[in-house]
## 1
Amino acid sequence: MKLILNEDEPIFIQISKAIEDEILTDSIKEDEQVPSTTELSRLYNINPATVLKGMNILVDKNILYKKRGLGMFVNRGAKNTIKLLRKESFKNKFIKNLIEEANKLDIDKDELIKKLSKVGYEYNTQLNQFK
């Protein structure tokens, strides 16, 4: 699992997002076991209770399930659940704020779409330079 801890958000949230990312990229598949709290706490030098708190968030979202005595495993349909939850979060955090700001600046729908298209084109052009 790839995780670079930062000060921007609580560690347990970063742990849950990192596990979600591993599921989204198929690094951890449905019905597979996720790394244990002990493994993650040693790897990142953090308290096992912090790791468990992050994992329990995923249990509450039905992304992970516990097998008594064995550990945590990825639920079937977890990848789809993560995508749905993240799309909703994306809409609420980014798109809603974008539209509100556009309204404040009197940017109409057509102008906003043009700006988004231009930014998308510039971004893709920059990405292609790295290939």
## 2
Amino acid sequence: MTSADNTPSTVLLVDDHPAVRHSLTIVLSAQGYRVTGEADTYKDALALIDSNRFDIAIVDLTLREGSGLTLIADLKLRHIPSLVYSMHESQSIVTRVLE
């Protein structure tokens, strides 16, 4: 919930539904996190990552433009941990996320 210097952890939310991002922001803020970036596409998320510092990214797999799976790989390269959520129940999707 907090960084080493006692500031709230910063979160990037990536989901193509504004209502979902808004709801997650409310829940996370109540738990002491700071949502400092929101994106609805892969491209917008990359732009935010390149110009901001995030402690974690919460990523939906299904985006309006681009792939959450590709974004997760890019986050890993930039040493940003990600929490993934999705409506997909397929074991193959879960395996791909974990890889």
